[in-house]
Amino acid sequence: MTIRVILADDQAMVRDGLSAVISAAEDIEVIGEAANGKEAVELARQLNPDVVVMDVRMPVMDGLAATGEIVSPDAVDGPRVLMLTTFDLDEYVYEALSLGASGFLLKDASTEELVNAVRVVAAGDALLAPSITRRLIADFAGRRRHERPRPEATSALTSREIDVLRLIARGMSNIEIAKELFLAEQTVKTHVGRILAKLQLRDRTQAVVFAYENGVVADSPPR
Predict the structure, then answer these.
(1) Residue 72 domain-assigned?
(2) Which of 111, 208, 209, 219 has its CA 20 to 30 A from that of 171?
(3) Which residue ranges does the record assign to the Response regulatory domain (predicted)?
(4) Are residues 112 and 159 in the same domain?
């Protein structure tokens, strides 16, 4: 199935470059381009893409505000947002996690990394750009973690699912979680699916936010 993408960046040359790179992939199609966040929101509502590749800093409406408009907390199958950042400590990114951005990528990423990021975000399968994401999560945790765990928040989860959620929050992939818990990778994938369904979360990124906000994770930062 073809992944339908909208590009949002205020620089025409950047959009052209992104479009050329992404369109070269046989399974990805660029269906629209926006020069600011407001245009991105309007296009997303008109075209219902699978992924919006969103610059953080844009005029009229920035990528953060646009993400909040595009990503509905109640929509499981709506567009997913891949944020593009120039600096790996961009302050906007912290809030974007809460608003539902599904991934983050630096603008100097390779062609292969960009295409893979679009595919991963479309699948809702994993966090992106380990070089920045785990540090962002660690900082986000320090800002937003509750002093005490909230058992009622995870009451629907089994003890094994809570174990898996903790490891997701540490930035681990399914393979890494399987090794850590001595489980089959398919079993971990099943647990992840059930966690997202029970907590009504869109993807692993939201699972990370949930885990830190509700004190599920230990104080140790992500690996």
Answers:
(1) yes
(2) 111
(3) 4-122
(4) no
- Which amino acid type is present at position 192? V
Q: How far apart are CA 35 and CA 7, in angstroms?
A: 9
Residue 133 included in any domain: no
The answer to whether 29 touches 100, Cβ cutoff 8 Å, is no
In this prediction, what percent of the chain has a pLDDT beyond 90? 46
Q: What is the CATH number of the domain that holds 30?
A: 3.40.50.2300
Residue 76 located in a structural domain: yes
pTM value is: 0.72
For residue 134, give the nearest of 204, 62, 55 by alpha carbon: 204
**What are the start-end ranges of the E strands in the chain?**
3-8, 28-34, 51-55, 80-85, 103-106
pLDDT given at position 200: 87
Q: How confident is the model at residue 54 (pLDDT cuts 50, 70, 90)?
A: very high
Task: Give the domain range for residue 170.
Answer: 147-213
Task: Kindly state the greatest CA–CA separation across the chain.
Answer: 50
